[in-house]
Structures are given as C-alpha cells and as structure tokens.
C-alpha cells in the first residue's frame, strides 16, 4: 500500500472487478423446492384418513415453542478491497488492492428461537470461527484499471477469527394439519466481524522472495438492520421415517455501516497500531437453509448451510502517519463472501 496520497480527488471512471455470486445460481432451485414442499403442505391442510396405531405425538401446533440449536462445522470467507490515490503526481484509480482468499475456519454456532404461532417470533444466533488457513495478496499499480503493477506480495493468512451475531422479531403465520408450515416475515439487526492477519511475506513483484517480520492485521465490522423471511415445514405427527425430516429456509437483506482498522507493521511511515481506517456504506444478503432429523420428541439432528454476500459503496480511506499527520483518499469498494456447513443438535421445549 502506497503512502503518497492527496485529500482532493478528481472524478475518474473506475473499473471494478465483476462479481458473480455462486449461490444465486442455486437460489431458483431452492425456491422451487420450497414451493413444491409448501404445495404439499397446503394440500395436506385437511385430515389424513389413514391412521397409524402408534404415532409419535407432538405438542399442539399453536402452543409457544422454544428451540436451541448447537452446531459446529467448516467455514470459508473471501474478502477484498482497493483504493485510489496519487502516485508520482498522477492519480491512479486502483492504486492498491488487498485480497484474502480461501480463508478457512472451524466454526461453532448457537441458534435460539421463541415462536408463538400467529402471535410473535423471536430469533437469534451467534457464531465464532477460528481461522486456520488462508492466502493474502497485496498489489500496487502505477496505471489505471490495475495496469503497470510494480509491487506484489503473496502472503499467509492462517490466523485470526470471524464472528457474527443477529437478533430478529417477526410475525409467524402457521397453516397445515398433517404437514405444518410456518412463514415468518422478520426484521432484525446484526453485526459481523473479520479479524484478518497477514504473515510469512513473499515478494512476487519484483521477485525478491521471502521477507521476514511481516505481522499485519485488518479488522472489519459490518453492522446494521435487515429484513427477511423465514420458512419451515414439519410433519404434525411422526408416523414414518419421512415424517422425521423438517426443512427450513431464511433469506435476509442487510444494510450495513462498514468500518475497518489496519495495523501495517512494516510501514515505518505509518502510525501503529492504527495505521489506517476505512469507512463506507454497505449492503448484503444472507441465505440460511437446512434440515432437521427428529430423533425424539424434543431432540433433533441439525444440518445447516449459510451463505453471505456483502459489498460496499465507495467510501473513505484515512491514513495516519508516524509524524502525526493524516491523509484521505477514496476507498473504491469492499467485497466479502462467506459460506459455512454445520452439524449439530436441536433441543426443543
């Protein structure tokens, strides 16, 4: 990252990297499956004349329900950002770019909900991940649109942490008799953080190889309100193995205030531990889906999948120099995607 920045920036066209969300390719399939499932639920809204002599009973479908889910699994994140600024007296629209790819972590998650059908639903979750592997690249350019790359380092990012917390309230609409469906519009608030590290430096351009002492960090915060929907389906009575399966799906759209703080330990001209900060407005969506397999009346095996896709508008990059002065330049964009797979237990009361 280059230090020669100026507070006054010209209007320039910036070509940002195209971003294609893999999850969006599968979203129509997920929605189609849910429509088919809900169609069966509506069709089964009338009593089934068949009778099993020993069905496993459930509580009334209109009583308050409390559920806690404890799970653990695998998570992967990707994050990138880039800035514009002056280099040798000329403004470069992408002056410096940082990417963290394939950031892998072990994750634990807690989910809780209180649902009183046709009255109110309270939902929340918190998860924490320990990063164990990942790659970082730091590139600097002398020409517009990522041309004339004069510096690149490829480094390790195998330490740090990620976490998310969210709370929501909604109105659960319930229908069905043999198959019970619940549709809940939701409004909530969430906070997400990535505490990313850069170590084991290796200079690729110019090709001087490994260098010692690199121990930098970049810590992000995404925080703000969201709206969404939640859908789940289950059998009213367990009379067969198929009746033990429950399906759930959640979609959330988020608005976020994005803030980040960096500690660039090898830049002698930067102040430490607060070398520069980023600030921007962002937005994103979150998809959660999965299955429960009922083991007993109050216990189920839980499989869950989460996908997140976030980005920011242009914002501000403020640098703090070692001599006490500061400078500002344009933060072009920040992009973050994440997915996780988890397996755990659901306990109901």
How would you characterize this protein structure?
The chain is mainly beta. The protein has a single domain, classed as Lipocalin, CATH 2.40.128.90. It has one helix and 15 strands; from the N terminus they run H-E-E-E-E-E-E-E-E-E-E-E-E-E-E-E. The chain has a 15-stranded antiparallel sheet that branches. The radius of gyration is 24 Å and the shape is elongated. Residues 2-13 and 18-57 have low confidence and may be disordered.
> How much strand?
over 45%
What distance separates the N and C termini?
A: 54 Å
The overall pLDDT, averaged over residues, is 88
The helix/strand order is HEEEEEEEEEEEEEEE
User: What is the CATH-assigned architecture?
Assistant: Beta Barrel
Q: What's the multimeric state?
A: single chain
Number of discrete helical segments = 1
CATH evolutionary superfamily: OMPT-like
Give a topology summary.
Layout: H1 22-43, E1 65-87, E2 90-116, E3 120-143, E4 147-156, E5 160-170, E6 173-175, E7 179-199, E8 202-205, E9 209-210, E10 215-235, E11 245-263, E12 276-296, E13 299-312, E14 315-320, E15 326-348
Antiparallel strand pairs: 1-2, 1-15, 2-3, 3-4, 3-5, 4-8, 5-7, 6-7, 7-10, 8-9, 10-11, 11-12, 12-13, 12-14, 13-15, 14-15
Short overview:
The chain is built from 1 helix and 15 strands.
List keywords for this structure.
mainly beta; single chain; 349 residues; elongated; disordered N terminus; Lipocalin
